[in-house]
Amino acid sequence: MTAVASSIPPSWYLLLAAAVFCVGLFGVLTRRNALYFLMSVELMMNAANINFVAFALYYGDLTGQVFALFVIALAAAEVAIGIGIILVLYRNFGTTDVTVPAEMRW
């Protein structure tokens, strides 16, 4: 295990990632608007990316950066599908509040 000399210690990256993840979790748990919900999930994914890249930098391995690229691709697909769901939600119910649709239609 070789550590790469960096001017910023890995604990600062982990602290930043934990703060971003907590903000995203707070948004998921408290917001009812689907767009805010989607943005909060993106924040949580970005916190995971910060961790992946920080550990890749610390250990001098590119595996974390490859995983971060996969998470970015996953986030792009999630946004594309999420926006479609939000548009259908708005078209059917007239709002983007996720608590309004109580049951699925057949």
Automatic annotation (TrEMBL):
Entry's localization field: Membrane
Tell whether RNA-binding is among the UniProt keywords: no
> How does the record say this protein sits in the membrane?
Multi-pass membrane protein
Alphabetically ordered keywords of this record: Membrane, Oxidoreductase, Transmembrane, Transmembrane helix, Transport
Q: Which residues cross the membrane?
A: 12-29, 36-60, 66-90
Which residues are in coiled coils? none
The main enzyme category here is oxidoreductase
Q: GO terms for molecular function, please?
A: NADH dehydrogenase (quinone) (non-electrogenic) activity
Give the chief site where it resides. Answer: membrane
Which GO terms are recorded in the biological process aspect for this UniProt protein? ATP synthesis coupled electron transport
* The EC number(s) this enzyme carries: 1.6.5.11, 1.6.5.9
Pfam families with a match to the protein in the record? Oxidored_q2 (PF00420)
Could you name the domain of life of the organism this protein comes from? Archaea
What cellular-component terms does GO give this entry?
Answer: NADH dehydrogenase complex
Q: Which NCBIfam families match?
A: PRK05715.1-2, PRK05715.1-3, PRK05715.1-5
The family assignment reads: Belongs to the complex I subunit 4L family.
Q: Per its record, how is this protein called by name? A: NADH dehydrogenase subunit K
Source organism of the structure: Halorubrum ezzemoulense (Halorubrum chaoviator)
